[in-house]
Amino acid sequence: MKDAPGFDKAAASANAFVTLVTNRDYVLGATALLRSLHLTGTEADLVVLYTPGVEAEELEPLRAFGARLGRCGRLPTSSAFNERHERGRLHKAAPFIKGGKPVFHTPLDNFVKLRLWQLTEYDKVVFIDADAIVLKNCDKLFDYPEFCAAPNVYETLGDFHRLNSGVFTAKPSEATFQNMLSRLDQPEAFWRRTDQTFLEHYFPDWHGLPVFYNMLQYVWFNLPDLWSWHEIHILHYQYEKPWQTEHPKAKTLRPLIDLWQVFANGKEIPEDVSDLPNPSKSVI
Q: What string of H, E and C letters represents the secondary structure of the chain?
């Protein structure tokens, strides 16, 4: 099983919410995410995959939430593939022009998400990026088919044709994982948005989740009519991260940043986010 994740303890549930930590910054993100999941009362396992760039002791804060920690490496891709998807080269070929990616962002790490299909001790898994928080119980996602993801909506309704891989459902299978590897690293293959583009290609008939299961933070100022605290289940801080103290959009996104901060420190978490004010149509 090509470098399958090695865990610190056995699975305790048939299902799992899984996130990925590839550096110290995302440990902080995962702390807020796991606390938010824990508060929803889920009985699913909380699983954290982490790469060699993170030391086991750095993950200690996550143990407070009963997290199951699994160390794993990057995928066994060719040197040519790795060169094509190196940060500088990839961002030059497919620049991010709508928002800013943190300096710690390493595109090759994104493909590690495919290791979810190696978690065959589970019947179903739901992946959630570590730069997200869960605001309502999402256990119903384990009843959804493979492969489900919300559309990549954050600017215009034209975004509905693309998925966002910050949240998705999967049914682990070693056979599927091996097939993914064989299709991922083809000669001259270039996945413009790394795992996201690959998953769109691998699951061309992907099932669409409601946007409220992966509400991207830019909706706050680009599409305020779409925002509804009453319905949002997962809030995803795409592009700039809420632990970054200064960035050009920080003032505009301050209500969302402040919400993430209370989940990160565990203090004054609102009992019901439905009571929070929705964005003004003049939020920009």
A: CCCCCEECCCCCCCEEEEEEECCHHHHHHHHHHHHHHHHCCCCCEEEEEECCCCCHHHHHHHHCCCCEEEECCCCCCCHHHHHHCCHHHHHHHCCCCCCCCCCCCCHHHHHHHHHHHHCCCCCEEEEECCCEEECCCCHHHHHCCCCEEEECCCCCHHHHHCEEEEEEEECCCHHHHHHHHHHHCCCCCCCCCCHHHHHHHHCCCCEECCHHHCEECCHHHHCHHHCCCCCCCEEECCCCCCCCCCCCCCCCCHHHHHHHHHHHHCCCCCCCHHHCCCCCCCCC
